[in-house]
Amino acid sequence: MTTAPDTSRRDDRLQESFLAEEEIGLRRGLQLRMVALPVIAIWIVIENDYPGLLFFEFSVICFLLIGMAQYYLWQRGGYREWHRYLFPALDITVLALINFLPNPLADRTFSPQILLRFDNELYAFLVIGTAAFSYRPRVVLWTGLYASIVWVVATLIIYGLPDSLGVLTNSNTDGMSMEELELALLHPRRVHLGRMGRQALVFLLTAGTVAAFVARSRELVRDHADSERRRSNLSRYFSANMVEQLSSSDDSLETTKHQNVAVLFVDIVGFTGLSESMPADTLIRLLRQFHARVQRAVFDHQGTLDKYLGDGAMATFGTPTPTKRDATNALQCADAIRRSIAQWNRERHATGESPIKIGIGAHYGAVVIGDIGGDQRLEFAVLGDTVNVASRIEGATREFDAECLVSEELVEAARAEGDSCGILERLQPRRSASLRGRSAETRLWEMN
Q1: Interstrand relation of 427-433 and 378-383 (parallel, antiparallel or unpaired)
Q2: In a 3-state reduction of DSSP, which class is residue 101?
Q3: Is 285 part of a structural domain of the chain?
Q4: Whole-angstrom Cα distance, residue 306 to residue 398?
């Protein structure tokens, strides 16, 4: 099991995840506009007189068009990086224009100084909020910064008008009664720069808070993508149910375990001679087809595909966590491989290709499991005499001219599990054999 993944591929998957979330965000942002803008349009009718309200209703249409244009560009593939910053700026600009420009359709208009006191900057928080749907902290911060700059510039422009009254200081309020001070503060031409500062500060703080939330959301997306990547890597070794179990387990594969498992070896008989007569691309295609059939059989029977061995494979049943059917699953897997290869040979015969002959050996017993390797690469390993015996049994299929041989220990383990599928009835005892590297003979059974 490799722990040094291709970071470029991982980054590409993360980018795809972020882009997918951003598309969802754009869609949600547009949906939010579709809900919020009609509510605002109704409120405009309540709060304003005709025909002055038409000016504000036109601005509502502008906001809707901005959102639709943004989503349209995304859908058509014309969305560029700078568009992410353009559209929030357009929202803020339109909002500033309708707040600070005199209403050309109104019978009466307030002075620019009075317009500063209407708290219409509150709508800018909606723009900052919808910027969060970009899933980009920088876009949110830009929106808050741009809103602050626009409000500061607009306030300073109005402050610079000839009829605007400046800031009250201690020097020009000395001797005033509280009543006189209140009247001076509420003068219709008074511009309060302190208010401007608070607006800019709150815009920035709000944008910073939302940006932090968006950054956290991106971390969650990254964690989710990494989790899916780990699940994908696990699925190359384990069956689907084991992937689910490993994903939800707190146990580390680095922990060394001693347990009983079933071990199965399978390979192509006479592969060396077969490979000498095959073009390289045909040989690789054959191995891929063979491995795919073995993998499917192993995973269909809750096994772990431990490794490919050139023209063969090693599978285990009961790793990393034992079940109540490990021995039975190993026997059923061996039978499934035999049937799959038989079907494959019928297909090969129909196309004029030579049949493939295989050998399968399986054993049951104690093993040690855990990660082995160095810092750059780790591999999930199953070690012990049981593995060696299973490999020797697979090699003995040539001596016995059998397609599948299994050990007495595996048969006894399956019998103890309770044979619910009749697989044991398909086993016939063969003579005991002296396997290489073992002093005692091993009794073998053949699967028919």
Answers
A1: unpaired
A2: coil
A3: yes
A4: 23
Residue 239: per-residue pLDDT: 57
Bridge-based pairing state of the strands 358-373 and 427-433: unpaired
5 preceded by a cis bond (ω within 30 of 0): no
Q: Give the pLDDT confidence score for residue 335 in this predicted structure.
A: 96
Residue 276 in domain: yes
* Whether 91 contacts 63, CB under 8 Å: yes
The confidence score (pLDDT) of residue 4 equals 45
Q: How many CB atoms lie within 10 A of CB 294?
A: 27
Segment 73-77 long-range contacts (CB within 8 Å, at least 24 positions apart) = 74/23, 74/26
**pLDDT beneath 50: ranges in the chain:** 1-5
- My answer on whether 329 and 197 are in the same domain is no
Domain that holds residue 35: 7-233
Least Cα distance to 405 among 342, 345, 363 occurs for 363
Tens-digit pLDDT profile for residues 119-178:
778 888 888 988 888 888 999 999 999 999 998 998 899 888 898 887 777 666 677 788
Residues 323, 221, single domain; the answer is no
pLDDT at residue 246, as a whole number: 58
Which of 45, 47, 36 shows the shortest CA–CA distance to 91?
A: 36
Tell me the chain's radius of gyration from C-alpha atoms. Answer: 37
Distance of alpha carbon 186 from alpha carbon 316, whole angstroms: 83
The per-residue pLDDT for 429 is 93
| pLDDT score, position 36 | 86
The predicted structure's pLDDT at residue 291: 94
392: amino acid identity, one letter: R
Q: Do the beta carbons of residue 197 and residue 116 sit within 8 Å?
A: no
Separation CA 183–CA 80 (nearest Å): 52
Please report the pLDDT score of residue 375 as a whole number.
Answer: 63
Instruction: Kindly report the backbone phi and psi dihedral angles of residue 384, in degrees, each rounded to the nearest multiple of 5, phi listed first.
Output: 135, 175
Fill in the DSSP letter of residue 256.
Answer: -
DSSP for 210-221, written as a single string: HHHHHHHHHHHH
pLDDT at res. 391: 94
Looking at residue 99, its pLDDT comes to 81
Give the single-character DSSP code of 226.
H
Residue 51 tokens, joined: 């025909």
Residues 6+ positions from 222 with CB-CB distance below 8 Å = 14, 17
Instruction: Specify the pLDDT at position 332.
Output: 95
Q: Tell me, what's the pLDDT at 235?
A: 64
- Give the CATH number of the domain where residue 417 resides: 3.30.70.1230
Helices in 49-165 by DSSP H: which ranges?
A: 53-75, 83-100, 112-115, 122-131, 137-159
**pTM for this predicted structure:** 0.54
**207 with 70, same domain?**
yes
Q: Residue 349's beta-bridge partner residues? A: none
- Residue 348 has which token pair? 């090969």
HSE toward the beta carbon, residue 41, CA cutoff 13 A: 15
